[in-house]
Write a structure and sequence with these properties.
8-stranded parallel beta barrel; 35% helix; binds zinc ion; two-stranded parallel sheet; TIM Barrel
Length: 277
């Protein structure tokens, strides 16, 4: 029996529309349709931002609530992960939707340079977001843009301020942050297995590195992220036609590594999330 691979689809992101693939879904109904196609293609985890109609990102909890309703109706059991990052507000605004109790939420445990700004995560904000996630029984996905963030997350889980077991995502290829470097990737995975042996992990490569990191993750037994959020124009990547196309690309690769796209039930079991009807 092959090992399941959870395919995350990052459907929209927070990059302004003019810089982005026009296929990126903007309105809630476009996002629900696009996620549904990706779900049918094999994705079981949706990483979500919400946008205003002009394409700018927002942290409006009402929009997040509408998106969650649509996804629950059209993608039964799919794991819903809301982003606390991006450009969706400043400080605690970024966690204003956590009372909606999504299955998961993203959490960066440190700061890093991004293409045109600083992705700023003070320890005070990290502690607050982590406490909110614990209070609402939301599983964090730790976004690791640099090695220190991995150690911080493990330290917090040992101290009981983040839940165990951790789920970590290694993000590579963001301009001005950690490049997609195979030896560093291997070291990340080895280090995680050494300091948090019960943790699960996903690899995410941005722009032209998306496919390479999908291959590396399948090879090393991790899970895969794809989607239009990471498939961006400024790095000269081919513009994908849809989220479903990108998910299908990963689903088709699984067999090469004796893996298969996880079912909803498998994905929930792997991440220790409750089964949902
Ligand atoms: Zn995101």
């Amino acid at each position: 029996m092959s090992e399941p691979c959870i395919i995350t689809v990052a459907i929209t992101g927070s990059v302004p529309r003019k810089e982005h693939n026009p296929a990126v879904p903007i309105t809630v109904s476009e996002q629900v349709d696009s996620t549904h196609e990706a779900f049918e293609a094999g994705a079981t985890l949706a990483h979500c931002h919400v946008r205003n109609d002009d394409g700018s990102t927002t942290s409006d909890p009402d929009k997040f609530a509408a998106l969650m309703d649509g996804l629950k109706k059209h993608c039964p059991g799919m794991i819903i992960q809301l982003s606390t990052g991006g450009r969706s507000g400043s400080g605690r605004e970024r966690g204003g939707m956590l009372p909606l109790k999504p299955d998961m939420a993203s959490l960066s445990t440190g700061s890093v340079n991004f293409p045109t700004r600083i992705y700023e995560n003070s320890q005070e904000l990290i502690d607050w977001l982590a406490a909110e996630m614990m209070a609402y029984d939301i599983k964090p996905e730790i976004e690791v843009f640099d090695l220190s963030m991995l150690f911080k997350a493990v330290e917090m889980s040992e101290a009981g301020t983040l839940p165990k077991p951790l789920h970590v995502q290694f993000v590579m290829g963001v301009k001005n942050a950690m490049p997609a470097d195979r030896e560093v990737f291997d070291f990340y995975v080895r280090t995680l297995q050494r300091i948090a042996p019960d943790a699960t992990w996903t690899g995410a490569g941005v722009a032209r590195h998306q496919l390479a990191v999908n291959h590396w993750s399948l090879e090393l037994g991790g899970h895969c992220r794809t989607g239009l959020e990471d498939n961006i124009r400024w790095d000269g990547t081919r513009l994908a036609a849809s989220n479903a196309e990108l998910v299908k690309r990963v689903a088709d690769l699984c067999g090469e590594y004796d893996r298969h796209p996880a079912s909803v039930a498998e994905a929930r079991t792997l991440l220790h999330l409750p089964a949902r009807a």
